[in-house]
Amino acid sequence: MEHSEYLIHQKWMYHALELAKNAGNVGEVPVGAVIIDSFGNLVAEGENRKERDQDPTAHAEIVAVRAAANKLQTWRLSHCILYVTLEPCPMCAGAIIQARVGQLVYGVDDPKTGAIRTVANIPDSAASNHRLCVIGGILESHCRRQLQDWFVNRRHG
Question: Can 2 be counted among the known catalytic residues?
Answer without folding.
Answer: no
